[in-house]
Amino acid sequence: MTPDLSAVPQAAPGRSAAEYIAGIEKLSLLRHTSLPYGGQMTWRVWQSDPALPVLLLFHGGGGSWLHWVRNVVPLSRHFTLMVADLPGLGDSDPPDDLKDICSVARGVAHGIDQIVPAGRGYDICGFSFGAIVGAHVSTLVDQRLRSVVLTGPGGLELSEKPWAPPVPMKASMAPDELVNAARRNLEILMLADPAQVDGVAIYSQIAGVLSARTKSRHMSRTWMLSKCLPQVTTRMHAIWGELDVTAHPYMHEREALLRKYQPDIAFRVIPGAGHWVAYEKADQFNETLVGLIGGK
């Protein structure tokens, strides 16, 4: 069933959130790679100069490429961006096991071999669930992978302050009810400042959650990043929002754990930002990411 998105706030006067997103998406090239268990994985590529270094972006759980909607155009000035819809999320077909991070990572690694040109190095930046995927992928690919940036990563067996349960979202909801549920969930988990919960964020939340099949929350709640870290030999960096509800006020635990495995890890905290730091503080996030891994 297709949800009724008529109540989603406009992105700007006379411009819907869907139109704003379409304007950014039309600047990309749509690519597909095969999955080793059948089906295909969808990527969007933003490329202003083929000589720019390659950066792969992996979105969070219950999301899609839209988790990077405020980042792709600015970052494409520094990188050739290959932005995934992870298996079973967004427009990509599902993995062979919806609860198995290894199945997801195997599909992504298979896609990387097809989409990144032979001989080209690349970096990965993964947000939340995408950070778990990035870490697992790093154990499956060759040394062309230069670094993995963990952005607000989930899957860590560390202290968390309890937060309110998310409001269920269904395509059959009335338009206002669906928008209110998405808004509330963004306020609970994703964004520290309620004023940042705009039409584009609401549209992205609804589209991502209602298309999700992969059980990313299960993988986070079974500590799949903590279990993987001892096997990661690729250089890691980390970016968090200061007020990320999944980490605040226990950020010191995250830093200590990551430094246990990589003592010289670059660990950055962006003031005033929540979990979806790349959206809420896009300019600061983009500048931080470019500073960590370079680019043009």
Give a description of the structure:
The protein is α/β, with parallel strands linked by helices. It has one domain (17-163, 214-293): Alpha/Beta hydrolase fold, catalytic domain (Rossmann fold). It has eleven helices and eight strands. It has helices spanning 17-25, 72-75, 101-115, 129-138, 175-190, 199-211, 216-221, 224-228, 251-261, 277-280, 282-293, and strands at residues 29-34, 40-46, 54-58, 80-85, 122-127, 145-151, 235-241, 266-270. An eight-stranded mixed beta sheet has the order 1-2-4-3-5-6-7-8, sandwiched between helices. Strand 7 (235-241), helix 9 and strand 8 form a beta-alpha-beta unit. The protein starts with 16 loop residues before the first helix and ends with a helix. The model has no long low-confidence stretch (mean pLDDT 96).
